[in-house]
Design a protein that fits this description.
It is a single chain. By secondary structure, this protein is mainly alpha-helical. It folds into two domains: 1-68, no CATH class; 72-99. Helices cover 49% and strands 0% of the residues. It contains three helices and no strands.
Length: 99
């Protein structure tokens, strides 16, 4: 899933337009996207405050990544999970091709 902004428009720049320095569009799984969107919907401040601040998805995703990478052992666990996901997808494809 391509990360999108609050208006569900692609954050990829139209061709020929410049991108904010340091900002790059990325692809994430549906599960990761759904979890980031759920986190984005939380208001910062009081839960029932209609004036609570809501953050852009780019800022939420960046904060999640940067905070997670500070957790001991997290980078290795993340790479193990990525490897399992890729290997599982190859295994699934080989089963489909065998049929």
């Amino acid at each position: 899933m391509h990360l999108m902004d609050c208006g569900d428009k692609s954050v990829s720049p139209p061709s020929g337009k410049k991108v904010t320095p340091g900002f790059r569009p990325i692809l994430v799984s549906e599960e990761a996207f759904d979890r980031l969107k759920k986190l984005q919907r939380l208001a910062y401040g009081h839960d029932n405050d209609p004036n609570g601040v809501r953050f852009d998805l780019k800022d939420v995703a960046s904060a999640v990544v940067l905070e997670a990478l500070l957790i001991d052992g997290f980078p290795a666990r993340a790479m193990d999970r990525a490897a399992r996901t890729v290997l599982d997808s190859f295994h699934h494809l080989s089963k489909e091709n065998a049929v």
